[in-house]
Amino acid sequence: MNFYRIDMDRWSRKPYFEHYMKESKCSYSITANLNVTTLLDRLQNKKVKLYPAFIYMVSRVVNSHTEFRTTFNDKGQLGYWDHMIPNYTIFHKEDKTFSAMWTEYSNDFLLFYKNYQCDMEQFGDKKGLWAKENVPVNTFSISSLPWVSFTGFNFNLYNGEYLLPIITGGKYFSDGKEILLPVSLQVHHAVCDGYHVSTFINDLQKLADSCEEWVV
Question: d(Cα 89, Cα 98) in Å, to the nearest integer?
Answer without folding.
Answer: 6
